[in-house]
Write a structure and sequence with these properties.
With about 210 residues, this protein is α/β, with parallel strands linked by helices. β8 and β9 form a beta hairpin. The protein is built from 6 helices and 9 strands. It starts with a strand and ends with a strand. α4 packs parallel to α6. The strands form 2 sheets. A 5-stranded mixed barrel has the order 5-6-7-9-8. Strands 1-2-3-4 form a 4-stranded parallel β-sheet, covered by helices on one side. It folds into 2 domains: about 140 residues, 2-Layer Sandwich (Transcription Regulator spoIIAA); about 60 residues, OB fold (Dihydrolipoamide Acetyltransferase, E2P) (Beta Barrel).
C-alpha cells in the first residue's frame, strides 16, 4: 500500500498483477521531482529514476492506480523547481494525489539547516495551482470509469446514499462511490456497481446484483 521510490521492491509488481486478492493500488511517497529539491530533502532518488519507476510500474501492472503526496514551498524551492513539479504531475497523471505546503517543524533537519524562505502567499499560490492541475486529471480519470461495472465494498450510509469504495480507493483519503439504492446494502459487503456518473473526484452508481 505504501512504498518509497528508492530501492523499490520490483518483485512486488508481479504479486499485484497476478493475485486477484491484492488491490492494483500503490501509495508512493515522492514529495517532489526536481533534482534540486530531492537533494535538499535527502530523498536519495533522482528525477530520472522516479520517472523510470513510474513507467515500469504502469507497464508491469496495467490499470494500477497510483497515489502520491507532494510538497510545495520547501526551503529553496524556486519557480523553476515548482514548474518542474507541475509538468511532472501533468506527465504522471496520478489517479490519486495530495499536496501540502511546507511548514517548519521544530527539531527537524530542515528546520535546523534551512531558512524557511518561501513566503506564505507563494506557498499557497503554488499549492492552489498544483491541486487545480490534479483536479482536472482526477476528473478525467473518474469520467473514464462511467459505464463500467466495479466491485465495491460498502463503508457506510449517509442520507440517501450508500458510500462505498473500489479497489482503487484507500479509506478516508480517496474518492468514493455514491450508490442510491432502495435495497438494504450491508456494510462490509461487496457489490457489483454499474458506474453511471462522475464528478471531479467521486463516482455514482447502481448495484447490478
Amino acid at each position: 500500500h505504501y512504498a518509497y521510490p528508492n530501492q523499490f521492491p520490483m518483485d512486488l509488481l508481479d504479486v499485484i498483477r497476478e493475485r486477484p486478492n491484492v488491490c492494483k493500488y500503490l501509495d508512493i511517497a515522492l514529495q517532489h521531482i526536481s533534482d534540486n529539491m530531492l537533494t535538499r530533502m535527502h530523498r536519495h532518488v533522482s528525477k530520472q529514476e522516479t520517472m523510470e519507476l513510474i513507467e515500469k510500474i504502469r507497464e508491469a501492472v496495467p490499470g494500477i492506480h497510483l497515489r502520491t503526496t507532494l510538497m510545495v514551498g520547501f526551503p529553496g524551492e524556486t519557480e523553476e523547481d515548482f514548474k518542474e513539479l507541475v509538468d511532472f504531475v501533468k506527465w504522471a497523471k496520478f489517479e490519486r494525489m495530495g499536496a501540502f505546503a511546507y511548514s517548519e517543524e521544530e527539531g527537524t533537519y530542515s528546520a535546523e539547516h534551512y531558512e524557511d524562505d518561501v513566503p506564505a502567499e507563494v506557498k499557497q499560490r503554488r499549492l492552489d495551482k498544483l491541486m487545480a492541475v490534479q483536479q482536472r486529471i482526477s476528473a478525467e480519470v473518474e469520467a473514464s470509469k462511467v459505464g463500467s461495472v466495479m466491485k465495491t465494498i460498502i463503508d457506510r450510509k449517509e442520507g440517501d446514499y450508500y458510500i462505498g469504495r473500489t479497489e482503487f480507493c484507500s479509506p478516508e483519503v480517496d474518492p468514493e462511490v455514491l450508490i442510491k439504492d432502495t435495497r438494504r446494502l450491508r456494510k462490509g459487503c461487496f457489490y457489483n456497481v454499474h458506474i453511471t456518473d462522475s464528478d471531479d473526484f467521486d463516482l455514482y452508481g447502481e448495484v447490478t446484483d
